[in-house]
């Protein structure tokens, strides 16, 4: 697997609850480690948002963390808006 092949865009939309959120998860090369897991989240339609970059020593451990984040978000009601592979 190469770094560019792991990218997921998740959304959760519930107008009755006022919930319009997105969550992006992807892997990228990093300056301080071989690979980094990047998470971006925020409110759909609003500028900005937040992000977190977590470095990993191996592609295998980064991909395992990537899958774990996606699974946890989907259990919380997020659904895929688009997937690049």
Q: What report would you give on this structure?
A:
- The chain has one helix and five strands.
- It has 85 residues and is an alpha+beta fold.
- The protein has a five-stranded antiparallel beta sheet with strand order 4-3-2-1-5, covered by helices on one side.
CATH architecture: Single Sheet
The run of helices and strands is: EEEEHE
| CATH topology-level fold name | q64v53_bacfr protein fold
In CATH, what is the class?
A: Mainly Beta
CATH superfamily: WGR domain
- Tell the overall outline: elongated
Topology:
Blueprint: E1 7-14, E2 19-28, E3 35-43, E4 50-56, H1 59-75, E5 79-84
Antiparallel strand pairs: 1-2, 1-5, 2-3, 3-4
Entry summary:
The protein is of the alpha+beta class and 85 residues long.
Summary keywords:
single chain; alpha+beta; 5-stranded antiparallel sheet; 85 residues; 20% helix; 5 strands; q64v53_bacfr protein fold
